[in-house]
Amino acid sequence: xxxxxxxxxxxxxxxxxxxxxxxxxxxxxxxxxxxxxxxxxxxxxxxxxxxxxxxxxxxxxxxxxxxxxxxxxxxxxxxxxxxxxxxxxxxxxxxxxxxxxxxxxxxxxxxxxxxxxxxxxxxxxxxxxxxxxxxxxxxxxxxxxxxxxxxxxxx
Length: 155
Hints:
Shape: globular
Helix content: 10-25%
Order of helices and strands: EHEHEHEHEEE
Number of helices: 4
Number of strands: 7
Strand content: 25-35%
Radius of gyration: 15 Å
């Protein structure tokens, strides 16, 4: 059984943190929270593809408690917001401010977004492919919080 087969829909799966200085942020989270930043070239995860996620703009992290990883909460990413294009993409997510986005595992992104809208939320942006791994989309809850939903590709 693959690790993603153990995930329960609605569970946290990823945390995305926008940053201005990747090296400074990595050092901060290593020292303050004990996060580790594995070598992306050593990963077998399809999202570690350097063409899709260049090391100069993106760093995946893992939490110090490996039980979280084993349970499916893989960690997250620091993503550099450094150009007008990066900021424009990020502004689609949350106005003109840098926002932390918590991602939640779902079985079907389209069906989940339908429920979001039916219950007073809003779809934010389009459903996007995330490398070779899956599909994702942001949504806004009725209070204005922006979150993300993520599903793995069907095998």
